[in-house]
User: Which sequence fits this backbone?
């Protein structure tokens, strides 16, 4: 499934991620999954939330640089070999992954995958019976 | 429009005559009434009688900012206190400020200078000029105010700050001219953009000064505010804003040299330099009686152009100010002007014009760190892309300035936008 991830630009300063979490909490928005990628001076805080539109409004109002990023959410059951299966499919189609992380949606374990060509990635996974 | 064609377009020959006459008078006035000038001229063996024409100006001693501090508050005044009608003071970063005193005639001339600048930038009595320079001891507010009044325009004296109200009045009273520092103009432009009021604002011309700015900043201000942006040059020591201003050609700042005589000197040797050569700008006030300045060293680095301008004015022009001799940072032995960093930033579309430089010395090596902001659309999920932008900026700075900075991309809006003169540098190095 193709979903929208929120990417927030943050300077590497103590408490910065906590401030983002607080803004979302105050807007009554649930963070379902997150991941922080860092460079030297800054990082990108990536979030999957219950109300994407509301989160963007709340974060922009706080003056933060926010962009929406299209990612793929693929089922990745909590059993040995399920991640390998996904990666094998992508490798077979020469699709390189920019980054990925996992989250639990309800009872299902999901892998969030970001690649240059999300559509091709989704098609490959569907063809392999993973959606 | 040319406010005073008789003066602004006079033949170079007549101008020289006028400058010579005025120099003779003002040197005598300074010598007779200001002990410092008498002592210094005596020490050089120069008498007022030795000054016969404007060419003799090179015989006179220089005056510096330090003199204004040393002779605080009024020991350089050349008239009885009863003749003084106005004081201004410049913000000193350390210790006492410098004080300027003006006679009624001086205030008139000052207003004339500003009126010429406003007219040169397309303003007339039909216009409403919003003065967003600070009012008070700072010469910006009252200087622009008096000049706009002399022109016959309607003045909207909003002073600096309270940005929301500034924009409301700008829209409601349909201001057509804006006078403020370029950094505050940029801040106003951003706020106007945020409020979506770009079309509601009817500004035509902006007059920006009190801090050096660049061509890149001009382009940005013109695009964001839908105006023509003109340099309004001046300094408290010489009078205030309006010592010179740009005409519609935007090709150099005309200096009102019938009142303020400019020279360019080699800052090391004090020698006069020819047209086109960069050096320190020096002014002699030819018709200012309260606090006459003989060969005042501005510390501004620029060059002069005496060729007649296409606008018809014969009064000379100066180029962009490269920086102040004392703004110059020496980092790893290389001269760096903060304004160079700004010019580079404004040439790269992915970056905002705001920046903050931090210089330090770690293990005997100078560090050169620059905080910068990206334009909104370039903040992304792609860390590699953002790092590539930082590398691109490093490359540009290395090729222009010659040393390698460390670039830090910071969050949007996190570099302080100032209301007055923007502070762009912290130098933490301790020099013993
Ligand atoms: Zn001109």
Assistant:
């Amino acid at each position: 499934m193709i979903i929208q991830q929120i990417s927030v630009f943050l300077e590497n300063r103590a408490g910065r991620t906590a401030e983002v979490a607080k803004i979302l909490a105050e807007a009554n928005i649930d963070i379902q999954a997150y991941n922080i990628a860092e460079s030297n001076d800054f990082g990108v805080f990536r979030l999957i939330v219950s109300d994407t539109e509301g989160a963007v409004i709340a974060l922009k109002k706080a003056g933060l640089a926010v962009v929406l990023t299209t990612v793929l959410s693929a089922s990745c059951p909590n059993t040995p070999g399920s991640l390998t299966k996904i990666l094998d499919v992508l490798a077979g189609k020469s699709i390189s992954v920019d980054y990925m992380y996992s989250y639990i949606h309800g009872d299902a374990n999901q892998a969030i995958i970001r690649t240059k060509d999300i559509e091709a990635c989704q098609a490959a996974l569907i063809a392999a019976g993973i959606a | 429009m040319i406010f005073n064609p008789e003066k602004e377009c006079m033949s170079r020959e007549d101008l020289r005559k006028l400058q010579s006459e005025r120099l003779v008078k003002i040197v005598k006035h300074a010598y007779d009434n200001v002990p410092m000038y008498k002592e210094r001229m005596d020490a050089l063996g120069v008498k007022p009688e030795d000054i016969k024409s404007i060419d003799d100006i090179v015989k006179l001693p220089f005056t510096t900012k330090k003199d204004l501090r040393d002779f605080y508050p009024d020991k350089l005044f050349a008239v009885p206190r009863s003749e003084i009608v106005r004081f201004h003071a410049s913000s000193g970063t350390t210790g006492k400020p410098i004080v300027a005193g003006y006679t009624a005639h001086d205030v008139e001339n000052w207003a004339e200078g500003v009126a010429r600048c406003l007219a040169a930038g397309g303003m007339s009595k039909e216009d409403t000029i919003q003065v967003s320079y600070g009012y008070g001891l700072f010469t910006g507010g009252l200087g622009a105010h008096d000049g706009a009044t002399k022109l016959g325009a309607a003045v909207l004296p909003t002073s600096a700050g309270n940005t929301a109200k500034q924009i409301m009045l700008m829209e409601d009273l349909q201001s057509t001219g804006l006078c403020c520092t370029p950094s505050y103009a940029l801040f106003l432009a951003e706020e106007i953009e945020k409020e979506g009021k770009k079309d509601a604002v009817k500004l035509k011309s902006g007059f920006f000064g009190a801090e050096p700015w660049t061509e890149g900043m001009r382009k940005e201000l013109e695009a964001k505010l839908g105006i023509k942006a003109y340099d309004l040059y001046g300094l408290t020591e010489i009078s205030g804003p309006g010592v010179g201003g740009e005409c519609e050609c935007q090709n150099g700042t005309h200096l009102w040299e019938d009142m303020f005589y400019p020279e360019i000197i080699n800052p090391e040797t004090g020698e006069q330099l020819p047209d086109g050569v960069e050096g320190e700008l020096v002014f002699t006030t030819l018709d200012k009686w309260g606090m006459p300045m003989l060969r005042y060293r501005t510390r501004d680095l620029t060059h002069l152009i005496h060729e007649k301008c296409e606008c018809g004015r014969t009064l000379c022009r100066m180029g962009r100010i490269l920086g102040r001799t004392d703004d110059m940072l020496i980092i790893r032995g290389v001269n760096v002007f903060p304004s160079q960093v700004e010019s580079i930033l404004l040439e790269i579309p992915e970056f905002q014009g705001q920046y903050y430089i931090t210089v330090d010395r770690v293990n005997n090596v100078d560090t050169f760190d620059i905080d910068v902001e990206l334009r909104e659309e370039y903040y992304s999920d792609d860390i590699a892309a953002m790092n590539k932008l930082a590398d691109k900026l490093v490359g540009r700075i290395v090729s222009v300035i010659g040393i390698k900075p460390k670039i830090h991309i910071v969050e949007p809006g996190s570099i302080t936008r100032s209301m007055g003169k923007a502070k762009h540098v912290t130098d933490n190095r301790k020099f013993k």
Notes: DSSP finds eleven helices and 21 strands in chain B.
